[in-house]
Amino acid sequence: MEVENLYFPTLRPRRLRGSETLRRMVRENLLTVDDLIYPMFVIYGEEVANPISSMPGVCQYSVDKLLPAVGEVVELGIPAIILFGIPDVKDEKGSGAYAADGIVQEAIRAIKKEYPDLLVITDVCLCEFTSHGHCGIVHEGDVLNDPTLEFLARTALSHVEAGADMVAPSDMMDGRVRAIREKLDDNGYSKIPIMAYSAKYSSAFYGPFREAAESAPQFGDRRSYQMDPPNSDEAIKETLLDIEEGADIVMVKPALAYMDIIRRLKDEFTYPVAAYNVSGEYSMIKAAAEKGWIDEQAVVMEMLTGMKRAGADLILTYFAKDAAKWLKDR
């Protein structure tokens, strides 16, 4: 943009920064509680609220303890949660993921009965439920793509049958959005949206989550199916494929080190973009705040606003409850 013959002292950008009222009026990006999705972990048992040691303030809840915790989310005005389940028994095919009486399915029914207006999203993957900890069917050490698709589709359908409002496949198998879309449509659930983990990187920021979800792989790693962190153009390809297969919302995970990817997806596509502010990002800030090295509230709000500025329409974050309280105070 060219502005002729207007220089200092005529041009003074500071004029619009002189008061909080004026700064609010010209603010370009605004974080609100409606942008937030709170991740929650559910586990079998009764009266269980297991603190996650690497994620202060986050717990694994049994269903009876989950409901009051969900009530707090609703009270704060947070519109949605995403559920992760930890089964009591794991096997090679992750059968607990798609069992009608699985832990996620039980939690969905309980939540929707108590809080019918809360949007319940479910993570669709097998890693928490498989004995080997990988996101698909394994044969001779290889994670098989095509045989995994039916199990993912069955998992998504079982969640929706239990009352889930949206499903979010996170496995990064090729073709899984199409498989899920067809399974839902064939069973009368064409109105259920899919939020695809479209650009999910093989990241070092997931460490604390693996404690929370008890999902660390028992051998190898996930680099053969999650994206290689140096890649950017690949995110465009992955996201385009998900959109063509029927995704309604696309996601970038992690968020903090991949804001350029959030921006690229937002610029490239007209679809809503979600950003997952992952466990490692959460834990780093919590650890530094506990040491007194940073102002937790200021840093969190700046970070989340940065994700919004990068192009995120939705932010999945373990800071959702704190952010909702801070936004209300403001």
UniProtKB/TrEMBL annotation:
Entry keyword set: Heme biosynthesis, Lyase, Magnesium, Metal-binding, Porphyrin biosynthesis, Zinc
Protein residues bound to Zn(2+): C125, C127, C135
Catalysed reaction equations from the record: 2 5-aminolevulinate = porphobilinogen + 2 H2O + H(+)
Residues noted as binding 5-aminolevulinate 2 in the record, renumbered to the chain: S279, Y318
The EC number(s) this enzyme carries: 4.2.1.24
Domain of life: Bacteria
Family (UniProt): Belongs to the ALAD family.
Protein name (Swiss-Prot/TrEMBL): Delta-aminolevulinic acid dehydratase
Organism the protein comes from: Metallumcola ferriviriculae
Organism phylogeny: Bacteria, Bacillati, Bacillota, Clostridia, Neomoorellales
Gene encoding the protein: hemB
